[in-house]
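in:
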């Protein structure tokens, strides 16, 4: 999916001109390699603030950030709030229940109301793919951050995944990442693919044929070239897919979005696609093991692995705060580093 602004930014890049300042973060397919790298560098610097006893910098004082979550969330919502507050922004959380959305107000009218209060940025999660794009097209003063839209995109999860991999593996160019599970319904998988490809990693998607996003692989999906995305392959056999991988990302089975019959059955799924200790040992020594959470331990990932030393699942959560600080800072100031942070 693209917005007029994203197209303008792409044209400017192609002409060698400085692209207009980014106001929205909708998905990583419109972030250049340099922009992603700059954000990750900034997030590494922001992470230092998390280690301080007083976790506060004045960088976003006077800015107002709204979070509007119309789907459940623990990690993403809390980390956006924490990121904004650590940089001294005022963060106001709105949930679907208790807001005028319950009285039938449309998403756009809710957003226009919030914009009229002079908020600077809206962080939105919606069950509808494309909802943040629609808002970005229709809001002229308030920026929009996509905190997950249906099965489409989750750019800040992808940024935190890239940050986690880069901190352990260094440059991701030439690295091989395996994403296992329900990629079809996973907005995380789609955004990870765009981010990993931008940084030069190759991606193998592994899972039952009914749960693979064929539009990404064969082309024709939103933001996907007609011939599919080069550097992305499919392997249904997890033992083969995992061999020599540098990083393995297990995905949650997204039952809330699956059509009946998409899965062969939970026992069969677990037998063939669970990341087990034996399978994980086939990856490169020291390979990273990740999961976006929330985890179904014992289904997509063996319980014995979920908290094992190679697993970086809590590290991903910590990096999520840092990467969201970096993104909020860039969107609200137009700069990369939190100078006073
Ligand atoms: N928390 C991630 C998301 O919101 C992954 C998941 O729910 O499985 O997409």
């Amino acid at each position: 999916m693209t917005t007029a602004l994203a197209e303008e930014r792409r044209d400017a890049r192609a002409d060698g001109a400085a692209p207009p300042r980014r106001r929205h973060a909708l998905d990583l397919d419109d972030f250049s390699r340099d922009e992603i790298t700059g954000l990750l560098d900034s997030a590494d610097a922001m992470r230092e603030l998390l280690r301080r006893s007083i976790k506060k910098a004045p960088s976003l004082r006077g800015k107002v950030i709204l979070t509007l979550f119309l789907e459940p969330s623990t990690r993403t919502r809390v980390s956006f709030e924490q990121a904004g507050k650590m940089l001294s922004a005022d963060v106001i959380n709105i949930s679907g229940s208790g807001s005028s959305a319950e009285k039938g107000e449309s998403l756009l009218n809710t957003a226009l109301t919030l914009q009229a209060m002079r908020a600077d940025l809206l962080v939105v999660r919606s069950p509808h793919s494309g909802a943040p794009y629609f808002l970005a097209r229709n809001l002229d003063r308030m920026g929009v951050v996509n905190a997950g839209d249906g099965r489409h995109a989750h750019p800040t999860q992808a940024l935190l995944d890239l940050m986690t991999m880069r901190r352990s593996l260094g440059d991701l160019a030439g690295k091989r990442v395996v994403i296992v599970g329900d990629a079809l319904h996973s907005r995380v998988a789609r955004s990870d693919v765009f981010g990993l490809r931008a940084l030069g990693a190759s991606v193998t998607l592994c899972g039952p044929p009914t749960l693979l996003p064929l539009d990404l692989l064969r082309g024709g999906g939103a933001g996907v070239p007609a011939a599919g995305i080069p550097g992305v392959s499919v392997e249904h056999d997890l033992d083969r897919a995992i061999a020599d991988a540098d990083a393995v990302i297990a995905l949650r089975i997204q039952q809330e979005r699956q059509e009946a019959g998409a899965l062969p059955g939970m026992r069969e799924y677990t037998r063939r696609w669970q990341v087990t200790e034996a399978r994980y040992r086939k990856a490169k020594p020291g390979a990273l093991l990740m999961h976006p959470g929330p985890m179904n331990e014992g289904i997509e990932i063996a319980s014995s692995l979920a908290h094992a030393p190679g697993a970086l699942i809590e590290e991903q959560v910590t990096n999520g705060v840092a990467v969201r600080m970096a993104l909020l800072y860039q969107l609200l100031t137009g700069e990369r580093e939190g100078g006073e942070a």
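note: The longest strand covers residues 143-149.
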